[in-house]
Amino acid sequence: MAILNVLILVCVLYVVLLFVVAFGADRAAAQGRGSWLASPLVYTLSLSIYCTAWTFYGAVGFAARSGLEFVTIYLGPTLVMIGWWWTLRRLVRVGRSQRITSIADLISSRYGKSNLLAVLVTVLAVIGTTPYIALQLQSVTLSFAAFAETDLAATTLPDMQSTALWVAMGLALFTILFGTRNLDANERHHGVVMAIAMEAVVKLCALLAVGVFVVWGLADGIAGTLDRIEASEIARFEVSSARWVGLTMLSGAAFLCLPRMFQVMVVENENEDHLRTAVWAFPAYLMLMSLFVIPIAAVGLDMMPEGANPDLFVLTLPLMDGRDGLAILSFLGGFSSATSMVIVAAIALSTMVSNHVVMPIWLHFSGGAAMVSGDVRNVALLARRLSIAGVVFLGYLYFRLSGGGTALAAIGLIAFVGVAQFLPALMGGLFWRGATKTGALLGLSLGAAVWLYCLFLPSFGPSLILPQSVFDHGLWGLTWLRPYALFGAEGMDPVVHAVMWSMLINTSVFVAGSLLSFPQPLERLQGAQFVNVFDHSGTPGGWTGGMAQSEDLLIMSQRIMGAREAQALFAAAAQRQGVAGYLPEPSPDFLQELERVLSGSVGAATAHAMISQIVGGAAVSVEDLMAVADETAQIMEYSSQLEAKSQELARTARQLREANEKLTQISVQKDGFLSQISHELRTPMTSIRAFSEILRDTGDLSAQEQSKYASIIHDEAVRLTRLLDDLLDLSVLENGQVVLNTQTGRLDDLLDRAERAAGVQGGALRVVRDRLAEDVELTSDLDRLAQVFINLIANARKYCDGQPPVLTIRPTITDGQLVLDFSDNGSGIPAKQQAVIFEKFSRIGETKAGGAGLGLAICREIMARLGGSVSYLPGQKGAAFRVSLPLEMRLAAQ
Amino acid sequence: MGKKVLLIEDEPNIIEAVSFILSRDGWDVKTHSNGHDAMEAVRLREPDLIILDVMLPGKSGFDILAEIRVDADFAATPVLMLTARGQTKDREMAERAGASQYMTKPFSNADVLAAVRDLVGA
Predict the structure, then answer these.
(1) Whether residue A628 has pLDDT greater than 60
(2) CATH at A149
(3) A678–B58: do the CB atoms touch at under 8 Å?
(4) Bridge partners of B103?
(5) Is the same domain home to A146 and A278?
(6) Considering the domain B4-120, what is its CATH architecture?
(7) Cβ contact (<8 Å) for A685 and B105?
(8) Which of A579, A596, A628 is the last residue of a domain?
(9) For A650-672, what is the mean pLDDT?
């Protein structure tokens, strides 16, 4: 079989293996069996996406062209890992406590959740990463072509463009499948991380195997290799110290700032302690990766024909010697490096693009209403998926347009300089409370502009984007604006020149801008959070939720997080506050918790904007305070705490007022009790008396009339009896004298029975059931339980005004608890009434459609006796009641 | 042909009973069973006497009575109010709203007949 076909087969099998590994890891994590997924080793291996195909193949090429200089690319991250471990820990801590989703999110979050800043970082990251993705596609196609050339059986050379397209599509598919399973970008992508860790092992093994083969297979051992190194040009390269220092600093900065590194290091971090292992393990990994670079380069220069591409020595050396198996392993190493980089970069960038560009635009155009009525969750997921496809496609497009030529080879360092522009804003934000949004914006924009003008645009070559005259005489003929000699700094290496000027201008403008501008209140609060992240984990008061509508918040959160998660979050918060039901008080603590949870899904700036649209401008009142208070951060925080206290008092007062209102309402109801009883008893009695007098006093009634009137008397007597039964039932239940008759039965039978008894058949109401979920056995007083179901179904039949009326019954089981939601599509129950519907004789409006208004009161008593509860579930479209009870009633509950 | 009575009441059995009693006594009985458009029914039927229940769906009997009294055509039409809530508070409210007579359910058929005859002066 031809080697090209073998290669394609191996490649496909390898990709299948990646899918299986990712799928398996996701499954294991979902079932809670994935503790090994969260090991420090996996974390360290995932960091190795720093080593892309550019380092896998390119390091040897780099060494063959300019000697030991390639070491700087590994030295920078090593120094950062060991020397700046305190900074890394702080970064990870901030990322976790603020639920940061990307580097754009971190910078925007620190500087007052500014979306403008997030957009700027996102755009810069996309510009910097696109060529880099193109570079990965190029490396795969080039290495593929290297095989094709040696394969004599291949009649036609495979088309480079189509290879790249297939690879790009496969990567986009993988990333979408495993990168967007959860909306919460802050949740870990176990599958992706596991696949990347595996790829890290593959690329290391591949490079070591090639190295061993070259040293002991081709070059007669260590001594022979050293001789060849001595004889090659590599030994004679002089590296300028400026370039050495510049590149080391640059790669260190890029290690912190590259979106994909931020993704694996901060966002995917499972446990802060993993850093401890990574601090020594990751440099060790880098050392192993660079161990054989020089030998391979030297032997390659010696043995390969003149003009052979040194970037492909790792592949062509084994091929030349006929070691096809080793060559395929080496190809897989390069393939792994390329694919893992593209996958993580696509996830990181898509999160940034969808959270900071697509979602804000969508929210802007659909207005505040979309948060309540639109499906934010699906839009966000769709935005993220489209962004992934878009990012990968951009990389492919760049590869097509640049022709895949040698211009790409230099792009790695150029991209590093671009993302390094984030460094001043990032570090300033972590360590300096005085850093402001204005400073960060100005520094970042100017640094990026210098980078674009001095390095990125010139990299396309003269006359392509920048005309030759600009290179010779500067922009608008101003000689101090020549891209390679800014301000007259001539004769410098272009990369070092660009690093120097961009970082110098960026940093000084950032510092000056921060000193001269005044931070907004939110920036100050966030600044304190970031800089003092180790001192306090709680946030100082930022939200004043006096007028927040809990129900609106719940509706919005359900759209974003999913109904179950949102309800659980709200119910837990309500329980902590000691409030019954699903609607907690919108206290500052709760709003902050909610904002953090939401920001995990849509980013800090968007989450902040969404909540403030519902709660109302929280920052405004803080700003007002600022105007009068002495302008220091301490007083600022102090007054914000005072404000939180007074808000709390106001809230307590409101709670008391509400309690009082409820008491008054109940007392009015008790007053109305006699009057109600009187009405309910007198109405049937009136008919009975009137018709019995008619029967008695009227002589000439027909037999038909006689029987009709007699049956009216009978029906009304039955109605009276039922009312008295209900009253008695309620009184027995309330006094706790009820005897429960425990039976075991199936839920679907019980609901069938209730549906029949509630008179649904033949009526307008359609009942939607989930037969599969109803396949449950439960032990309880089934007759009493049926009574509750009948009541709820009959209420929907009587009151639901949907067109046509539909009642959905949805059972779920968690921890031995059965939860049944009865929700209809009518207009629901107004918030004011929700508090009293379970009271006796409460009926909505003056309608006489129902009975005496005792039904729900009886239901509540029954459920309490059965060890469960029935409550009104707010925030649904229509009226919704939630019945919950234990699957097996314990006798003690009686 | 007898005088016209308009009965505004929402319990079907009570409607049937009152209609039966009055029809046999020679009255022309029309009925109406909700509060929303009770006033339109009054204008349409132009009754000589109105029997009005207090608790009606849509609008309370007191409100309807107030509208009847405001309308110049019916300001003097006798109104017999029926209620199932026998509290003195209700009676006072009815009198203040301008009810001609007030009866508590359950009533005896003879009393209703007597009251109706009395009110229309037949």
Answers:
(1) no
(2) 1.20.1730.10
(3) no
(4) B82
(5) yes
(6) 3-Layer(aba) Sandwich (3.40)
(7) yes
(8) A628
(9) 82
Mean pLDDT of A741-751: 90
Of B89, B105, B108, which to mutate for an interface test with A (greatest number of A Cβ within 10 Å)?
B105
CA distance A514 to A507: 10
Contact A689 B85 (CB under 8 A): no
Q: Which residue of B has its CA nearest to A699?
A: B24
Q: Looking at the partner chain, which of B56, B87, B105 has a beta carbon nearest the beta carbon of A686?
A: B105
Q: Are the CB atoms for A213 and A318 separated by under 8 Å?
A: yes
Domain at A833, CATH number:
3.30.565.10
Q: Which residue has the higher pLDDT, A21 or A526?
A: A21
**Domain end point (choices A354, A375, A407):** A407
Q: How many helices (H) and strands (E) does chain B have?
A: 5, 5
Confidence of residue A844 (pLDDT cuts 50, 70, 90): low
| A686 in contact with chain B, both atoms CB, cutoff 8 A | yes
Is position A496 within any domain? no
Any CB–CB contact under 8 A between A687 and chain B? yes
Give the whole-angstrom CA distance, residue B24 versus residue A865: 54
What pLDDT does A622 receive? Answer: 41
Whether B24 sits inside 8 A of A686 (CB atoms) is: no
Q: Is the pLDDT of residue A824 over 50?
A: yes
Q: Is the pTM of this model over 0.80?
A: no
Q: pLDDT at position A809, please? A: 92
Extents of the domains making up chain B:
4-120
pLDDT at site A544: 44
For A282-293, write each residue's pLDDT tens digit. 889 988 888 888
Residues A194 and A117 in one domain: yes
A239, pLDDT greater than 80: no
Q: Which two tokens stand for residue A785?
A: 């339980």
Contact A686 B14 (CB under 8 A): yes
A237, A283: one domain? yes
Nearest to A99 by CA among A523, A606, A448: A606
Q: Is the dihedral of CA A424, A430, A431, A433 positive or negative?
A: positive
**Chain B residues within 8 A of A717 when measuring between CB atoms:** none
Confidence check: pLDDT of B6 > 90: yes
Write out the two tokens for A340: 């893992």
pLDDT band at A822 (very low <50, low <70, confident <90, very high): very high
Question: Of A366, A494, A511, nearest to A436 (Cα)?
Answer: A511
ipTM above 0.85, yes or no: yes
Nearest to A846 among B17, B55, B109 (CB): B55
- C-beta of residue A505 within 8 angstroms of C-beta of residue A447: yes
User: Tokens 């009634």 sit at which residue?
Assistant: A701
Put simply, the chain A residues between 817 and 846 with a CB less than 8 A from any chain B CB are 846
**Domain span at A658:** 638-734
What's the mean pLDDT when you consider all of chain A?
A: 79
Question: Among all residues of chain A, which has the CA nearest to that of B13?
Answer: A687
Closest chain A residue by Cα to residue B12: A687
